[in-house]
Write a structure and sequence with these properties.
Blueprint (H helix, E strand, L loop, with lengths): L2 H27 L9 H4 L10 H24 L6 H17 L6 H25 L6 H28 L2 H25 L3 E3 L3 E5 H25 L4 E2 L11 E2 L5 H29 L14 H19 L1
Antiparallel strand pairs: 1-2, 3-4
């Protein structure tokens, strides 16, 4: 067994197990009744903990690690990006998506959401000014906002999904995207002949993409079938609030919708992978890092799920 494939198998299994443990724990925590405890007045007199409180903590860590790698890509390109500012910017963007009140008046939602991004941009500019140089100011400001949006705002849509659904719905969306990665990798190695975009990602093939889409559709159909029989993909009773009520509703997913969702998320996830390839090629590096053996860096793992988050949110809204 090739070393790369062995590492992918081992660490891929570990990451899947970690995701399942996270989702199970987050789902359990979101159903804990804190009524009558000291926590209730601290959480605006809510009876339950905020939905996704554990997920958001893990996402903040991933955003920080990914932002560090993203800063290294900018630095490799010659952009004077500051790792600390990029990390803060990514975390601010993610926190904004989670903390902005869903029930705030319309005239307040946009200012509340945009203010942290303005803070991130100003931090980037102030950090650059502190170096007492003008060269690269435009690029540094752009890098700061890039981190806030790419690793903060966009994956923040996952937190919005979690606010309106059980943690298992979030797991299902991520599983559909990674199913495409698995199917594409396997089909590409065995049947790949025709290059997808050779100038951007020489290893990707049309056969791999087809295999990835097919496997994602199969997984989507299986998940929909299991849900329709066991009703494990629940929806929060009040999707407008980030606080749960401890009550969930269930609605069936048609197999046609599941197949469409699987195919669409597979293609978009593949596009997210290609987007990161674009960034790496521009920076002149093969991988975004080396934190995860067999995969590369954190960005090499989360590139495809990031891209599908907004689409998945609107499809499930």
């Amino acid at each position: 067994m090739p070393t790369m494939f062995r590492y992918r198998l081992i660490f891929g299994t570990i990451m899947v197990a970690g995701l399942m443990a996270l989702i199970f724990a987050d789902d359990r925590i979101g159903r804990i009744n804190i009524g009558g405890t000291f926590l209730q007045p601290l959480l605006l007199d809510q009876s339950y903990l905020p939905a996704g409180v554990l997920v958001v903590g893990v996402f903040l860590v991933i955003a920080a690690l990914g932002a560090r790698e993203l800063a290294d890509l900018f630095i490799a390109k010659g952009v004077p990006a500051d790792r600390t500012v990029m990390i803060i910017s990514a975390m601010l963007g993610l926190a904004t998506m989670y903390l902005t009140p869903r029930d705030a008046p319309g005239r307040l939602v946009l200012p509340l959401a945009m203010t942290p991004l303005v803070v991130a941009f100003l931090l980037g500019m102030l950090r650059h000014v502190a170096r007492k140089q003008t060269a690269g100011a435009l690029a540094a400001g752009g890098a700061t906002l890039f981190a806030a949006i790419y690793l903060g705002v966009i994956p923040g849509f996952f937190l919005l999904i979690r606010a309106g659904h059980s943690a298992w719905v979030l797991a299902a969306v991520i599983m559909l995207t990674k199913a495409c990665d698995i199917g594409a990798y396997t089909a590409g190695r065995k049947f790949g002949r025709h290059k997808l975009i050779p100038w951007l990602s020489p290893g990707k093939t049309w056969e791999g993409l087809a295999g990835g889409v097919a496997f994602s559709v199969i997984v989507a159909l299986l998940l929909a079938f299991l849900h329709n029989h066991f009703q494990w993909l629940a929806h929060a009773a009040d999707p407008t609030s980030k606080f749960t009520t401890g009550e969930f509703t269930h609605r069936p997913f048609s197999l046609a919708f599941a197949a469409l969702l699987g195919a669409l998320l597979a293609v978009l996830g593949h596009a997210g992978d290609l987007l990161e390839s674009l960034l790496k090629r521009d920076a002149g590096v093969k991988d975004s890092g080396s934190a995860i053996p067999g995969f590369g860096g954190v960005l090499d793992v989360v590139d495809s799920p990031i891209f599908i988050a907004p689409v998945a949110y609107w499809l499930l809204a």
